[in-house]
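Researcher: Checking consistency across runs. Here is Peptidoglycan DD-metalloendopeptidase family protein again:
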Amino acid sequence: MGAGRDHPAGVALLPLPVSVPQGAGRRRAFFWRPALLTATLLVVSTAATAQTESPGQTLKRVEQDLQTDKALQRQLDRQSQTLQKELDELRDRLVGLADQERAQEDELAHLEESLTALETQERNQAEKLEGERQQIAALLAALQRVARIPPEAALARPEGPVDTLRSALLLRDTVPALRARADALAQALTRLAETRETLQAQRSRTYAARLTLIDRQKEIGQLVARREELSRQTEEERQQVAQRTARLTGQAADLRQLMDRIEAERRAAAAMAAKREAERLEAERREAERRLAEQRAAEQRQAEQKLAEQKAAEQRQAEQKLAEQRAADQRASEQRARAETETARAAPSPPAGERLPVGGRVTVRYGEADRYGATSRGVTIQARAGSTVVSPQAGTIVFAGPFRGYGQILIVEHSHGYHSLIAGFGRIDTAVGRRVATGEPIGLMPADGSPDLYFELRRHGQPINPQRGFGAPEGKGQG
């Protein structure tokens, strides 16, 4: 710390290599160690020799430090290009994983609906079989009681022969019907067993789908953290090198001014001594200077005349080129205006549901009454807890954070006068000024319940139907 304070340039040491999180191939981003070692040694040597060097030596050493920093800056620029390429690849992976997560959520919702239907079917079959079983058990009990009555006791019963015959015929007809109902009950039990097997398999698939969805969400979270770490690391490294270079440049300027002052004083003293010795040569010197001045004045006038003629010619050429450029620009502007007008008239509106920021069920559509009774200027989507929210279109983040009663919101500025307002985040994973691609993850829904996401799309400040997508006709109240 002491050496850093004594150094006139105020050299700041750069941080050591920073490891990056897993999820991107376990790669690491490192600074160039030779350049850092050189900068560190320069700081130590400067503190040790600052009291014995002359201003000229100090200036030379500072200029060498500047050359070293420029080389480090070039290395850092190359590293920045490599990191930017990795950021672009990471953004593409995030977009793909978000699409996979959306498909996985849809599949999981379908499996859960199918599971609910199978559970209802199993419950209904079980209730129906229980009723059949109780009826058959009652009939079997009655037959068993009749079978235990001896024939002699049956003849001695108080009923008449006709009643006894009728009971016998009734029992004869009941036995085949009871056998048929028993067979039907066995088949129903078989179907119930098959339904339970199907239900168990469906539960296994649903559990596997949930595990896969959790893995996708974890991977997206790791990649988002990796993206933020790379962005922050690149910006901090460039700022540190730029600040150090600026300090070295200021010190070099101060040293040059000091040396200029010393040199001026030395020249003044030499001039005073030379003046006393050169008085006898003053007349000859003045004559020589006069002739030289006349010669230089003539050369100057000739050079100024040539320069004026050259500037006049260049000005005429520039004015001609400017006129031609303006005419070409005017024609190009008129052609673009006509082309944009024709495109706006002929281009069909994108289909409904082009890309919403999150997957789920639309509960309030554009123009419908919301839960407060007001007319909705966007759409409300009921999403799964913890779902990834993506950018509906490429653009720039112009606002990110809490706003009045809307909670955490994002405003994304797109091309052609479009703005997206997205509210209902549980967490925002981007920042103001950041460029985002179409479908790139920008945050997560709350982690519990069935959260709602509000999505509003505006063009030139006027709300339009988000489900008609970007490129919808201008104007209010489009449904």
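Researcher: Does this match what you'd expect to see?
Model: One thing to look at in this run: The first strand starts at residue 18 and ends at 19.
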